[in-house]
């Protein structure tokens, strides 16, 4: 067996239209919406960097400026914070700017689907395994999911996707797996299907927005076949890749928030806000009082 491959590059597809969040997403990407005081994309980038990722590849669409500016220096802001002795904030802002030359932006001309967005990263990634993070899947955990998946990748040297058991009536919102084994955290996948109706779904194990894929996925994506919703789906390309090489599902620990949905996004804000003592002290009494007041008859 050849030498072990490691994963140094992560792709962040951020070119979706974010229609569920209109009008908020008319002029800014959905991934720039904040959970408490950090944009979704920053949580994802921090997760990748903490896992040892060295190169960040954004697949953007229109409205990319806010994203680019977020991960760049802001001299004017830095001067003002310095003049006001806001050292902690200054350090925080400084730490979110990755080293020059480690971010690549490529563009998806048209939002033809997640699979197509990933295909757009092919030249930036080249011939090596890479990670994909969807910022709207936010996982609250002490053990960042991508870091755990990269450790598994070191062992199996095969593609891995994050999976979670979902409510069986929701299978038509996810890529759903058919697996050989259950009961461990690493599942050998037999098949997968995008957005099956609950009566057609092989299980209730759903693919969540963290992937480690081998570069052979690009060959599959280059077929540009349209799938569910008329979009080019990554799940369909992975299902074909599965005919050639193993793919594993990784059951992660932690609470996932679907920040692509309005309810999930609000839940994430609440959970992350309650983690912050300075916010919690005002928020908890407010929630209790508000719920009391909105009880029917009161
Ligand atoms: P979603 O399926 O949540 O789609 O994309 P969306 O278009 O962003 O949002 P809605 O459904 O209209 O509200 C999952 C991820 O894939 C990216 C999105 O930016 C998001 O991070 N994506 C999706 C692309 O980059 N390009 C696409 O063509 C589709």
Query: Main sheet?
Result: 9 strands, mixed
The count of strands amounts to 13
What is the name of the CATH architecture of the largest domain?
Answer: Alpha-Beta Complex
The outline comes out as globular
Question: Could you state the order of secondary-structure elements as H and E?
Answer: EEEHEHHHEHHEEHEEEEHHEEHH
What is the H level of CATH, i.e. the homologous superfamily of the largest domain? Spore Coat Polysaccharide Biosynthesis Protein SpsA, Chain A
Strand content: 15-25%
Uncertain ranges: none
| Ligands present | uridine 5'-triphosphate
- As laid out across the biggest beta sheet, the strand order is 5-4-1-6-11-8-12-10-9
The CATH topology label of the largest domain is Spore Coat Polysaccharide Biosynthesis Protein SpsA, Chain A
Number of discrete helical segments? 11
Number of domains: 2
Task: Characterize the structure shown.
With 298 residues, the chain is of the alpha/beta class. It has two domains: 9-260, Spore Coat Polysaccharide Biosynthesis Protein SpsA, Chain A; 265-298, no CATH class. The chain contains eleven helices and 13 strands. The protein has helices at 40-50, 65-70, 75-83, 87-95, 114-119, 122-125, 145-156, 217-221, 234-241, 262-274, 277-293, and strands at 9-14, 34-35, 38-39, 55-60, 103-107, 130-133, 137-140, 159-165, 175-179, 186-194, 205-213, 247-251, 255-258. The longest helix is centred in the C-terminal third of the chain and has 17 residues, at 277-293. The model has no long low-confidence stretch (mean pLDDT 93). The structure holds uridine 5'-triphosphate. Uridine 5'-triphosphate binds next to strand 1 and helix 5.
């Amino acid at each position: 067996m050849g030498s072990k491959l490691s994963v140094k590059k992560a792709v962040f597809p951020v070119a979706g239209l974010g229609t569920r969040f209109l009008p908020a997403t008319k002029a800014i990407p959905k991934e720039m919406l904040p959970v408490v005081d950090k944009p979704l994309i920053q949580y994802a980038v921090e997760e990748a960097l903490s896992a040892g990722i060295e190169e960040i590849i954004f697949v953007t669409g229109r409205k990319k400026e806010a994203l680019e500016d977020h991960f760049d220096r802001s001299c004017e802001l830095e001067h003002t914070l310095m003049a006001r002795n806001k050292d902690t904030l200054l350090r925080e802002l400084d730490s979110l700017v990755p080293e020059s030359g480690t971010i690549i932006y490529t563009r998806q001309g048209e939002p033809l689907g997640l699979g197509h967005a990933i295909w757009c990263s092919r030249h930036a990634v080249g011939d090596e395994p890479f990670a994909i993070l969807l910022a709207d899947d936010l996982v609250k955990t002490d053990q960042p999911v991508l870091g755990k998946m990269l450790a598994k990748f070191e062992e199996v040297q095969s593609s891995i996707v994050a999976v979670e058991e979902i409510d069986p009536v929701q299978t038509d919102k996810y890529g759903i797996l058919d697996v050989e084994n259950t009961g461990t955290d690493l599942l050998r996948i037999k098949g997968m299907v995008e957005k099956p109706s609950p009566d057609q779904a092989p299980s209730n194990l759903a693919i969540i927005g963290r992937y480690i894929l081998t570069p052979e996925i690009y060959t599959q994506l280059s077929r540009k076949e349209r799938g569910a919703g008329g979009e080019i789906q990554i799940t369909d390309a992975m299902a074909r890749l599965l005919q050639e090489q193993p793919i594993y599902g990784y059951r992660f620990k932690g609470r996932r928030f679907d920040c692509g949905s309005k309810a999930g996004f609000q839940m994430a804000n609440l959970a992350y806000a309650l983690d912050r003592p300075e916010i919690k002290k005002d928020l908890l009494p407010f929630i209790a009082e508000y719920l009391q007041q909105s009880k029917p008859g009161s």
